[in-house]
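B., you asked whether I could sanity-check this one before it goes into the benchmark set. Here's the sequence:
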Amino acid sequence: MSKIWFFGDSFAATVPRVEGHDEKSWTINVQEAFPEYDSENLALVASSLDYLYCIYEQKRKEFIKGDIVIMSLTNIQRLLLRNLEEDLQLRFLQNGRITTPLCLQEEKVIEFLPEDHPWYNYFADDLFNPEVHKANANLFLNSLQYDAITKGIKIIVLPIQDFPFLDLDDKDSITIGKTTKYGNLSTVCLKQMRAKFKHIRWHWTSTWFEHEECREYDKTLASHLTPRNNEILANKVIRNIKTNEPIDLETEWEYT
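And here's what the prediction gave me:
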């Protein structure tokens, strides 16, 4: 049986909802639209691109002709830390914090680093070369193009932000969601929060996770999206699978 595979970060992961909330992730809507397919979701909350590379490489040998691979593509400012013991949980370094998802489908634990910690400014340090990580992301897209052609699978990539460094030329065998600086999955999240929490004095540089009430509200959502926007994203992906319609991540969203 062919399978729909999901990879990526929290925009594609399914996690237990807060009690009393049963919102469905768009990934489940996609699964339900194709009952003839098996499915497996390997997306991990707060995970990094290098984790995506690892888990994709582990699973790609299991792909068969006709499979569908869907993934969210996160930003380069996340790194998978080395585990010296096999039974330790995965840990990811982000800006000023270490995030530990408890397991593939659960909540996460966040350790905020003190400013004098040697990793606090890692992504601004010379140890981190963004150009190398941008090149790795493009090499990964090239490998996806190769797999789509040689394995006969459909691959859909959904960038969570607008990443101008992505080389989209010669990627006609895979689908990459269209984004703009102000139209992408991350800005959808922010606009949802601004529509709901109008009493917050939003600065143009504000992010929703700076505010506790926004973080608590996000826990009630699936994949950071409202139920309606989960439906909208699911429909975009479903139409692409059925008709190859391009996936526009800038438009059609609703904010109430």
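One thing to flag: The chain has one domain: 3-80+130-243. Otherwise nothing jumped out at me.
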